[in-house]
Amino acid sequence: MINKLTSKIKKTNAPIVVGLDPMLNYVPEHIQKKAYAEYGETLAGAAEAIWQFNKAIIDTTYDLIPAVKPQIAMYEQFGVEGVMAYKKTVDYAKSKDLVIIGDVKRGDIGSTSAAYAVGHLGKVQVGSNTYAGFDEDFATVNPYLGSDGINPFIDVCKEHNKGIFVLVKTSNPSSGEFQDRLVDGKPLYEIVGEQVAKWGEQHMGDEYSYVGAVVGATYPEMGKVLRKVMPKTYILVPGYGAQGGKGADLVHYFNEDGLGAIVNSSRGIIAAYKQEAYAKFGAENFADASRQAVVDMIEDISTAIQNR
After folding, report:
1. Which residue out of 4, 10, 94, 105 is catalytically annotated?
2. Which of 151, 265, 133, 145 is nearest to 211 (CA)?
3. Would you state the pLDDT for residue 244?
4. CA distance 163 to 5
5. DSSP-derived secondary structure for 165-202
6. Between β-strands 123-126 and 129-132, what pairing exists: parallel, antiparallel or unpaired?
7. Inter-residue contact 272 to 28 (CB < 8 Å)
8. Where are the alpha helices (DSSP H) in 62-187?
9. How many Cα atoms within 13 Å fall on the side-chain side of residue 181?
């Protein structure tokens, strides 16, 4: 699957991923009203509104982008109905030939880790049949429990041609409370990055490993160091746009071949119509605003890479 992601990035010239992290207040009123008219102001109504919102954004952006990244928490808050909307979103994006990065941030050990891996990336045995649960292409994984938590994911990835992105240096302000602590003279995030590179050696694609890393756009100097530590690792870069990251900040996340990183924007794209720059589209044309935000993001990052 890392080969497909790399190929689609080359084809689209768009090293970006659209984060499908919908809050209800991102969903225009006319979408909500239609969903509530059918399902009432219920969890099912909220889930329907989110699903229709996602579908419209996918329909207007899928030809420009290689991947989407739904954040499962935004769906889980609506219970079972929300999780069903998550699954519908994954399946629909896959029908458009998009790569799916399930932002699930799982982290456990042993049989529990294996169950998470099977549920999101593998197939579960039911009698004489096997079924793919959520069936994303990649999943985000928390490495805090060490190799006991990561190896079950790698095993499933090898079996099903899937991949993971391991949290290394996250974009949130308090990430340094643990991740920046010095251990034997090195910041912890660098030690984790070194381990990610080692894990990646177990499952290599043609150019890059199936074991990727998450490194926030808000810490470009650290990203520069980690790029050298993990030369064959694809870096998923959150924090673009709404969290302050810009294309010029991100050039060091990419290798000399212009590959090696994929930059995420969530509300900067899906809620673009709420921004002054795209207000002309209005709530009725929210998806068109999202498309324009994608076009602008591609140009920003591509120009920065070319001019570095």
Report:
1. 105
2. 151
3. 56
4. 10
5. EEEEE-SSGGGHHHHT-EETTEEHHHHHHHHHHHHHTT
6. antiparallel
7. no
8. 73-76, 79-95, 110-121, 147-160, 176-179
9. 6
Task: Please report, in tens digits, the pLDDT of each residue of the chain (308 residues total).
Answer: 899 999 999 999 999 999 999 999 999 999 999 999 999 999 999 999 999 999 999 999 999 999 999 999 999 999 999 999 999 999 999 999 999 999 999 999 999 999 999 999 999 999 999 999 999 999 999 999 999 999 999 999 999 999 999 999 998 889 999 999 999 999 999 999 999 999 999 899 999 999 999 999 888 889 899 999 999 999 999 988 755 567 888 999 999 888 999 999 999 999 999 999 999 999 999 999 999 999 999 999 999 988 77
Judging by beta carbons within 10 Å of its beta carbon (0-12, 13-18, 19+), is residue 127 exposed, middle or buried?
Answer: exposed
Closest CA to 240 of 211, 261, 212, 213: 261
- Would you state the structure tokens that stand for residue 276, as one six-digit string? 């002054």
105 catalytic per annotation? yes
Distance CA 197, CA 229 (A): 7
Instruction: Tell the residue number behind the tokens 């589209």, with chain if given.
Output: 281
The tokens of 55 are what? Answer: 């579908």
Written as six digits, the tokens of 69 are 């990244």
Q: Residue for token digits 């080692």?
A: 198
Q: Which helix (H) or strand (E) holds 290?
A: helix 286-306
At position 171, the amino acid (one-letter code) is S
Q: Which domains does the chain have, with CATH numbers?
A: 2-306 (3.20.20.70)
Instruction: State which amino acid sits at residue 118.
Output: V
The residues facing 139 across adjacent strands are 102, 164
